[in-house]
Amino acid sequence: MERINLLDLVSLSNDYKMSYKYVNYLTSNRLQQYRHEEIKQIKKLIEATNLERQYFNDFYYSYQIVRLNKEFDLIKISNNFVLNIELKSRNVGNKRILKQLSKNYYYLRLIGLNVIEICYIEKTNTLLEFKNNNLEEITFATLKKYLKDSKESRNINLADVYSIDNISASPIQAPLRFIKGEYVLTENQEVAKRQILKSFDEYKYTTLKGDAGTGKTLLLFDLAKELKNSLIILQGELSKNELLIKEKLNLKIITIEEIKDYDFKDIDYILIDEANNLTTNIINVLKNTSAKILFSYDKLLQFIESESDSIVAIIESLSQNVVKLNIKIRISEEINNFINKLLNLSKDIKIDYSKIHFRYFNNYCDAISCAKELKDTCYIDYNLNVYYNQNNLAKKNTYYIYGKEFNKVVMILDDRFYYQNNRLYSINKEYNYKKMLIYFLTRTKKECYIFVTDKKLFKQIEKMM
Fold it and tell me: Which of 163, 349, 443, 445 is paired with 218 by a 20 to 30 Å CA distance?
């Protein structure tokens, strides 16, 4: 993203139309909304400092972290610190300003430098600095000092700072960072967390819904760190990373298979991941506990419609409040775009083909053989077996993959799939193959492979290539 001299930004502030066009040009037309009053606020701030042009170089204006739904008015990264200036036309109250700046600090600290945060209030021409979780009024002399001290800027790629791996610490993939608290929750996750905690005050049963990649598992683990006497219930056997978190944070974590023999006497909260894999008997066991229960699931995981539908129906009948996560953070934009394009060839979506690999095979056996040989790549077949040669994992039940991610994933498209009016469908028998395909592709962190064994299908897919 481009860095701007603030004097350029305000140079046409006396002419709305010209300023509108010029600011959009300077920002490469990335602004969602041009705010002329904000441009005039910046001009007034500059005039109050009475500093030369050189001290206003290399500012990020209206920088957005899309995945966090977060925007900063002005950011300058120097050799020693990050300077953040937020703009207000009037004093909206110290409580609101403090809340905004504390949240900004939460995100800006990921840059790895000291953070200085200031709020400029235009109407009173005053400055408030965020210090030790409080607001302190400062003079323009102090701001001038900060601007002079930040004259030499540091070139840091904010896109890298706020990459998926940095802003989110999957308990499954990055246990040490999760243990140390080196992650941030998105605004969507923060809102959902508050809603869940409030729901626990009123209800016994709460449901958390969200598609793959919205961060349900991370939110469950984050809640468990905060709630005393809580229990996490996971699908399948615990991985070494989950066992590490269990040990280091002293969290209570069990699998669905352990529920029937577990003593819930001292448990106040039960947090269930992939709850659609519960059984009627297990739900009856949970109903008999005194704990508040959170059912978390993704309807996309209902591969066996007849079984999953009945369990989800029971959960929904019990649930007294539903909380939703609807912003995907874990899936990269490239992979998400590809999945959407694969499902609907008519969509006008740009695809980064450096992350996507298509291959055609004349027969299914050759495709399977090649899939199993790919290094550092997970292959899932439609009999719900997982093959992953890096860790000597072979023909393991797909429960292993629930909630887990892999650098590379390969899926095979055969005569069970077809396109109609450019939309992908599957011929379902025991399982819903399209749901399986989508879910397993969302397990991809970096690259995915699509092996096609049906010539008619590949002819359609060639439209993407």
Answer: 349
Give me the residue label for tokens 């120097």: 78
Segment 363-379 shows an average pLDDT of 86
Question: What is the CATH code for 333-464?
Answer: 3.40.50
Q: Residue 281: enclosing H or E segment and its boundaries?
A: helix 280-287
pLDDT of 394 reads 52
CB 44, CB 8: distance < 8 Å: no
How do residues 145-154 score in pLDDT, each as one tens digit? 999 999 999 9
| Candidates 3.60.15.10, 3.20.20.120, 3.20.20.70, 3.40.50.300; CATH matching 188-325 | 3.40.50.300
As a residue count, the chain comes to: 465
Q: Give me 362's structure tokens.
A: 């004349």
**What are the backbone dihedrals phi and psi of residue 30, each rounded to the nearest 5 degrees, phi first?**
-95, -10
What type of residue sits at position 23? V
* DSSP character string of 196-249: HHHHHHH-SEEEEEE-TTS-HHHHHHHHHHHSTTEEEEESSSPPHHHHHHHHHT
- Rounded CA gap, 268 and 265, in Å? 8
**Per-residue pLDDT reduced to its tens digit, 114-130:** 999 999 999 999 999 99
- According to CATH, the topology of domain 6-157 is Trna Endonuclease; Chain: A, domain 1 (3.40.1350)
Q: What is the DSSP letter of 330?
A: S
Same fold, 188-325 and 333-464: yes
Phi, psi torsion values for 4, nearest 5 degrees? -130, 145
Q: Do residues 167 and 65 touch, judged by C-beta distance below 8 A?
A: yes
| Residue given tokens 């790895």 in the structure block | 112
